[in-house]
Predict the structure.
Amino acid sequence: MIIDSHCHLHDLAFTDLRETLRTALAHDVWGVVAVGCDASTNARTLAAAAAAPKSVWACLGFHPEWPQLTDEDLDLVTTQLEAHHGRIVGLGEVGLPWYSLEGRGDAAALMTRGRARLDRLLQLACRWDLPVALHAPHGAAVGALAALKARGIERAVFHWHKAPADVTRAIVEAGYYVSVTPEVVYRDRDREMVAWVPLDSLLVESDGPWKYGGEFDGLPSGPWFTSRVGEEIAKLKQMPAEDVVHHLSTNACRLFDLVWA
Ligand SMILES: [Zn+2]
């Protein structure tokens, strides 16, 4: 049995929550850490966790790549965090922009704004001792790592992690997790990373409803993909699948302080 450490259950693809969780369970996925991106998706995430408290755990977030989000939207999210911090398991997803900076003449200014916003959110994570689920791909990872360290954040995961090996090494050495998606089944970059990152530092996720290629091409995306991710990690580690899946679930429980059902 495995835990999906990052899924967008607020998405319309998962309107039928009971069916989503039933399908997940049929694939040995017994729990989902659900992340939000702004005030309205956060509200839907809280509703999902309230509807299925034994298998859905909510994080509230503010997505760093959503171009329409303003500082007023960030105020709404901080108000939500003040109201709900006691019933969530983390802050996420939050982070730094990267893909949305491509081709922008004001990329440096947008990154500066992104850093300030992230720091505001990290202060709240500190105040309520919440772990952080980060979106900080490629060149954004090093800045996010510095931001975590500067605020003394102890628990964090770099979701759908991709960064130069030296940055990944620094993340792992700092005690943070890196999370792997179904791409590990068919993408060499992810496979190489999983081969050397200690199992103690790995999480698995679907980032559903994100669509994947390879053997997942054309399939509806959701938490059910994570058991296949766990199986592939076991192959790469040359360890029994059952042990690896147990280890990955324990990692998720440790990071988000989940009660093992
Ligand atoms: Zn996501």
